[in-house]
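hey can u check if this looks right to u? its 341 residues, i copy pasted from the old doc so theres a chance i mangled smth
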Amino acid sequence: MKVNFILDLERSLIGSGVYSSATRLADKLIEYGINTDVNGKNHPYDIYHFQTSLPQSLWKAKILKRRKRKYQIVMTGHTTIEDFRDSFIFSNRIDFALIPYLTKFYSYADYLIAVSDYNRDILLRYGYNPSRIQVISNGIDLSINRKDPGLRIKTRDHLGISDEQLLVITVGLCIYRKAPDIFAEVAISSPEHQFFWIGKYLALGTIAHSSFLREKFRAARKTNNLRFTGYVTRLTLEALWNAADVFLYVSREENQGIALLESIAYGKVPVVRDHPVFNWLTSDVNCLKGKTVEDFSKQIHRLASDQGLMKNLQLHGEVILKSHDINASVKKLANLYTEIV
């Protein structure tokens, strides 16, 4: 069986969750025994699996659908109007056109993959056939031992972070939808702890709500306990994952959140927004949840003062993470491919 992952604007997507998830899945499918290319040219393929929904993706899907064919078209439906809003400049002005666009694009799929139950519910509201949609988590590789106590100590020493201080991090593009303003306000309200926003910093002129964010960033620069790192290498990211204690995920909208899964795998305690996409997590069992700056600050202070709570949440988080093992995701994908070819 030959599979082609179509990942348009591949270079521009480096550092994004879409790119990381697609390339990771492709590598694992190869290990599983399925011949998988990313933007391959070795046509024909048995499966064309679209990872992006860009205009060039629409054009390619339209051409593939029209041809007399033996292959099948699969699409991962992680692009939604909800996820598109509040991201880039003009995104909120053209979002009215996105539903008919996505409805048309996804109509070219023989089968659609939703990355979470929440993602599936949204896609069903767009009118997609429920018998042709399957929930398969992008997943992460749980066979890798991510925890490195020696690296944790070394990194915290290098950063000048004491044992008494919590290091609170998040990972993601620095755009309004991801809520860097909320993250900054929580940091300002908790000067005794350190906060790192790890992720690509885009020019303000290219993102939504740029004027609002500009003011928030000005205030954040006056805060000694908050750093925006920009894009970092994988080695640097691993060091920061190990050095951290808490993963604060205040994003206003997600379809899954691979960075959250990664954080739990590194043994970080997740403090997340109370949002339906995170319904697989239970507050005070395997995470802490909140809706406001005050809520998030309160939860972080709880963790700082209660090591028992911290350890309990870490333990239960690792248990729930097993349902997102990438090997299970690859097996489900392989079974789907085999079934439809």
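The CA atoms of residues 141 and 232 lie 21 Å apart.
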